[in-house]
UniProtKB/TrEMBL annotation, chain A:
Keywords: Membrane, Transmembrane, Transmembrane helix. This is Uncharacterized protein. The keyword Transmembrane applies. The chain crosses the membrane at residues 6-31, 189-208, 302-324.
From TrEMBL, chain B:
It comes from Flavobacterium enshiense DK69. It comes from the Bacteria. Gene3D superfamilies: Metal-dependent hydrolases (3.20.20.140). Pfam families: Amidohydro_2 (PF04909). This is Amidohydrolase-related domain-containing protein. GO terms for biological process: secondary metabolic process. InterPro entries: ACMSD, Amidohydro-rel, Metal_Hydrolase. Keywords: Lyase. GO terms for cellular component: cytoplasm.
Length: 340, 401
């Protein structure tokens, strides 16, 4: 086989996988949005970060802290994004609260009847949040978390410095969390890829056979791939789970500004999905359950078809950015090196 | 106008309970029950339970609806809301916390641990100082019990109105680690509420016998009841009926009302409420129309080497002049008309001191039987003129005298 033909097949396949993995990514995004996958994962990881069996589950306390609680869309949901600034403020507040003393006095109408007239509340708290934090840490029993929080206080001079240090700590942790999230989402992505492959009959083996034998289709796909790269649509379509917290920050701003966010976000996903599906339909890629699709593999149709679907599922689960990259690289090799 | 109190309610949520909490009542094993609890707390299922619960008044659904609520504040608001349009709209609520951190194996601990549960109760007290009166739960396995640092802070600030014990979660009331608590409570007239029925929650860890010593330590080791306790443990351990060797029934060893006699003899002025009057199984004994329960009571009585039911023991050995500050409450038992008829007869015949019986419902656990207001109405109908003082004078005396 000629090298240029191999490259053309590879470019065509990369284009195909890129388009379908974009569909997979969009479905995954929609699914994550509906099931609050990110919110729940963020909740789990913060609970883990602030787990302190010796004292209390500070993660739970953080989520019930007023400013964090207000981020919830409804009472059963978890915020999908917590900024490091908000995290730091809330943590300093819940730790500082431990330094507060409160006293209630029951005021009875008479000592005999013991009917309550009122319960008076007297609260004693440090007004300086930096000092409150220090006193709050002091109230904790020794634990690794206490040691960490105490170190934050010892290394800083005032509230802004303390906040900055906690923010950096949270950001570092979130960078690791993004990695864990990526690993966790791989399985879900594979399942969605499998469903997409089955729904569109994306059989890699049949497609390779078709591209290999049909030169017009191959050339056509290569042209489309080149167009796609020229359009540089990556930024608009790219859904990189490693950056999901930052992406969501923009979404949160948008949500705050727009009350109809729920419907609009759903509509946004649908519109994007619609445009990708139209693109696939226009690309004359051999997919779907049309005509004699079962005859593509002869008499051993079923095992080969299953293998084809599984290969596609695996490929699609790599994600759109990966296949875009493959497409760019192979086109560059074709353009630079081997002239047809 | 007299203040009214519901002396016995719970507002903890599913998050405060261990992961395998649903083993209680379902007997499905820890794996399945952990999965079910996770499933119930997932957004779509909890949403479905909440929506269905609003339309269908199935008792289990109502119970689950409260269990899946997102916070203790929401459960409390739900309870207060129930009373809002009733004759008891001004009722004050005593919410009993339960330390569930030790009621199972360490890897199944609740998502919201006990200290965090308490923190939420502090916040609720600040929000509703006039109507909300929480009790602080004490478990001797919690390291704080020895120094009582957190308990004292909670009580002395008046944020918490009393102490809650829940022995079937895995400890004996005469545990020597509780000695300091009883001493402190007696000296300061602090009310203690303790669970006493054959039902309710219990220790759900894998090996219940790992926490029941053949010869348990006692704060009053020479007390005559201790020999009986040792024999009782051996009888349960070697019971021919396998059910008595399993967690649900074996934990009755912790709950037995006689376990309080060594405590009360050491601290006779202790203000102690033995809740539920021993529960329906023990109030009705062999007269229980539920033949299974009647048989259970008789079989247990034989194993426990007792000649009286728990209700009789509470009446004859605990609510006595020797212990001037002992009480019982009608919570949960009030939804059983036979139990209330029995209590009414005993009150009328002065077999039980009417000043020592308190009113409570055991919300939200009682929703498994009926709605809160219906349960209150049932109690009022059966107990007639005894009911109002239970809700007001008796409860006030228990809380504030």
């Amino acid at each position: 086989m000629q090298v240029s033909k191999t490259l053309e097949i590879l470019i065509s396949l990369a284009l195909l996988y890129f388009l379908f993995s974009t569909v997979v990514s969009l479905i995954f995004e929609w699914y994550s949005h509906k099931t609050q996958k990110r919110g729940r994962f963020l909740h789990e990881t913060i609970i883990k970060l602030l787990n302190d069996p010796v004292n209390k589950s500070y993660g739970t306390s953080l989520y019930s802290q007023y400013s964090i609680n207000q981020l919830k869309k409804n009472k059963d949901s978890y915020p999908q994004y917590i900024s490091s600034s908000m995290f730091a403020d809330a943590l300093i507040d819940i730790i500082g609260t431990q330094s507060e003393t409160i006293h209630f006095t029951n005021v009875f109408d008479s000592s005999k009847s013991k009917n309550l007239v009122e319960v008076k509340m007297e609260e004693k708290r440090f007004s300086d949040p930096y000092e409150r934090f220090q006193k709050g840490v002091k109230q904790m029993n020794y634990s690794p978390l206490k040691s960490q929080l105490r170190a934050f206080h010892e290394k800083t001079k005032d509230y802004p410095e303390l906040k900055k240090m906690i923010m950096d700590w949270f950001d570092d942790y979130m960078a690791r969390v993004s990695g864990w999230y990526k690993v966790k989402t791989k399985r879900t992505l594979f399942h969605i890829s499998l469903l997409v492959s089955l729904a569109f009959n994306v059989d890699s083996i049949a497609i390779i056979k078709k591209i290999n034998s049909d030169e017009t289709l191959r050339k056509d796909l290569v042209i489309q791939a080149e167009k796609k790269i020229n359009q540089q649509e990556l930024k608009a379509i790219k859904i990189d789970s490693s950056k999901f917290f930052k992406d969501y920050e923009q979404a949160v701003d948008y949500i705050k500004k727009n009350k109809k966010q729920k419907d609009e976000i759903e509509q946004m996903y649908l519109n994007r999905l619609d445009s990708i599906v139209s693109e696939i339909e226009n690309s004359s890629i051999p997919i779907g359950y049309y005509g004699n699709w079962q005859k593509a593999h002869g008499k051993h149709f079923l095992p080969i078809w299953i293998c084809g679907i599984l290969i596609s599922s695996l490929a699609l689960s790599f994600g759109a950015p990966f296949w875009f990259e493959v497409m760019v690289k192979t086109i560059n090799i074709r353009r630079a090196g081997i002239k047809p | 106008m007299n203040d009214k109190y519901n002396i016995h309610s719970h507002i903890f949520t599913g998050k405060c309970a261990p992961k395998d909490f649903l083993q209680i009542g379902l007997n499905l094993g820890d794996g399945v029950s952990s999965f079910l609890k996770w499933l119930f707390l997932t957004k779509p299922v909890s949403w479905l339970i909440e929506k269905l619960g609003s339309f269908i008044h199935n008792k289990t659904l109502q119970f689950l609806k409260i269990g899946v609520m997102s916070s203790q504040g929401e459960v409390f608001a739900n309870l207060k809301g129930t009373y809002n349009n009733s004759n008891y709209s001004d009722i004050k609520i005593v919410a009993l916390s339960i330390d569930m951190d030790y009621m199972t194996d360490p890897n199944k601990k609740p998502e919201q641990d006990f200290n965090s549960q308490i923190e939420d109760l502090y916040k609720l007290k600040k929000t509703y100082p006039d109507t909300f009166f929480p009790f602080y739960s004490v478990d001797p396995r919690n390291p704080d019990t020895i120094g009582l640092k957190n308990v004292k802070k909670a009580i002395e600030s008046n944020a918490f109105a009393g102490i809650k014990l829940y022995p079937p979660n895995g400890f004996f009331p005469f545990d020597p680690r509780l000695d300091g608590l009883y001493k402190y409570a007696e000296a300061n007239n602090i009310p203690i509420m303790t669970h006493c029925t054959r039902g309710g929650t219990y220790f759900i860890g894998k090996d219940v016998w790992s926490i029941i010593s053949d010869n348990p330590l006692s704060l009053n080791p020479t007390h005559p009841i201790m020999d009986k306790v040792i024999k009782r443990i051996a009888a349960y351990k070697n019971a021919s009926n396998k059910a008595f060797r399993e967690n649900a029934k074996a934990c009755n060893l912790f709950t037995h009302p006689e376990n309080y006699l060594p405590v009360l003899d050491k601290y006779p002025k202790l203000k102690l409420c033995i809740a539920h009057m021993g529960g329906d199984v023990e109030i009705l004994g062999d007269k229980n129309p539920n033949s299974k329960h009647a048989k259970w009571s008789q079989e247990a009585m034989f194993l426990e080497d007792c000649t009286a039911t728990w209700y009789e023991i509470i009446k004859q050995e605990i609510l006595v002049n020797k212990y001037p500050n002992t009480f019982t409450d009608i919570s949960y038992s009030l939804c059983d008309s036979s139990c209330m008829t029995q209590l009414h007869n005993d009150l009328t015949n002065a077999e039980i001191d009417n000043k020592r019986v308190l009113f409570g419902t055991d919300y939200f656990l009682v929703t498994k039987e009926d709605a809160e207001l219906k349960v209150v109405a049932a109690g009022e109908n059966h107990l007639k003129n005894f009911f109002s003082p239970m809700m007001s004078e008796n409860n006030k005396r228990y809380l504030f005298s």
